[in-house]
Amino acid sequence: MPKPKPTWTQKLQQSKPAAIKVLDKAFADMPEGSRMMIASPEIIDRYVRNLSPGQCITPKQLRADLADSNQAEHTCPVTTGIFLRVVAEAAWEQHLSGVPEKAITPFWRVIEPDSPLAGKLACGREFIRTQRTSEKAALTIKTHSSK
Description:
Layout: H1 8-13, E1 19-22, E2 35-38, H2 41-49, H3 59-69, E3 74-75, H4 77-96, H5 116-120, H6 124-134
Parallel strand pairs: 2-3
Antiparallel strand pairs: 1-2
């Protein structure tokens, strides 16, 4: 009998620790020799929980902030996207099980409703729009140059 698939909450809780890797070749927008942080779902969850109501950032800003606070030049864009989904889906599971909204991770403060990631989430784009509207937050974030 196959082992049951872990829930998103279990994936969040069973994550590997973060690591810093020196790139031996260029990757994405990061040059060879860069110090790249590979975060964890727990680190991303903790970061997002610290965002204030109405405060929205982009995943790119999240990556820059994590790199800066962890003595790295960059944070991996691929694993950050994966882990941000884990955080969002775990929060949605908790929401569906009756956990009060104020106790779940406010992933809508990082995931824009029209982003490709939002389209993959079980909560749907409309939930993110509703949350941002209720917090009087922008539905889209104007980006500025950063890492």
